[in-house]
Amino acid sequence: MPEVDVNGIRIHYEEQGVGPALVLVHGLGGSTQLWHRIAPELAEHFRVVSYDLRGSGLSQKPAGPYSLALLINDLAALIGALDLAPATLIGHSMSGGLVLAYAAAHAEHVTALVGVGAVCEVPDAGREGLRERAALVREGGIADVAEAVAANGTDPSWRQRDEEAYESFRDSLAANDPEGYAALALVVADLHVSDLLEAVSAPVLLITGETDPVSPPAANLASVESLPDARYASIAECGHIAPLERPRELLEALGPFLRERV
């Protein structure tokens, strides 16, 4: 099991392919498994590295609190330890915000960026909901949270089309370490990345599902307006988990951008 020491903890990562570095970063409740449907094809042209955030997957799960700054430092340490710079970064959900914030602070280490259902800001009601979710998980309610998150965050067409894959996703959410999940949920609750977007000099592609309730098209279009060099793409009949719901369509959206920019 590949691991690297990052800021005093062990971080699990997976690597495949050769070529320019492409780093894949999952969001809240995820792991490297999020990328398994698209990583092999990307690895035909890139050195693809995915990793589990602290508190997630097979990485170490130190007690919180966590912060966006801490996650940025983890990413910087990983890129340094594996000699990945300059790299293209693809972040899902909260890690869409994470890679944008990283690029604002480390422009020299970034070739290009992709946010898939990127979350840069959370509405006030959403912030309170995330804090309540963290408290519920810490009290032992992660199974109920997983059921709600999976159902509310994905397009019904996926659940009908591939019930087995949907149930696997739901079960992976339920398998999260409660403390790690809660600590990361509180990071999302405090996200304020929109004010950093003007400092992102790398080219950016923001992709979202047309029915994504977490990172809706309107929010992504607003972020595009704030970024110096950005474009937008959407995926029909897709919710918040595009790498699992619509992997082929996601690769089709990624392809032209990566070929032109990397």
Q: What descriptors fit this protein?
A:
44% helix, Rossmann fold, 262 residues, 8-stranded mixed beta sheet, alpha/beta, globular
Q: CATH homologous superfamily? A: Alpha/Beta hydrolase fold, catalytic domain
CATH topology, anyone? Rossmann fold
Helix amount = 40-55%
Mean of residue pLDDT? 96
Low-confidence stretches: none
Strand neighbour order, sheet with most strands = 1-2-4-3-5-6-7-8
Query: Could you tell me the number of beta strands?
Result: 8
Describe the structure.
With 262 residues, the protein is an alpha/beta fold. The protein has one domain (3-122, 191-261): Alpha/Beta hydrolase fold, catalytic domain (Rossmann fold). The chain is 44% helix and 18% strand. The protein has an eight-stranded mixed beta sheet with strand order 1-2-4-3-5-6-7-8, with helices on both faces. Helix 4 (124-138) runs antiparallel to helix 8 and helix 5 packs antiparallel against helix 7 (163-174). The longest helix is centred in the middle third of the chain and has 15 residues, at 124-138.
SSE blueprint and pairings:
Elements: E1 3-6, E2 9-16, E3 21-25, H1 39-42, E4 47-51, H2 68-81, E5 87-92, H3 94-105, E6 110-116, H4 124-138, H5 142-153, H6 156-161, H7 163-174, H8 178-189, E7 204-209, H9 217-226, E8 230-235, H10 242-245, H11 247-261
Parallel strand pairs: 3-4, 3-5, 5-6, 6-7, 7-8
Antiparallel strand pairs: 1-2, 2-4
Helix pairs in contact: 2-3, 4-8, 5-7
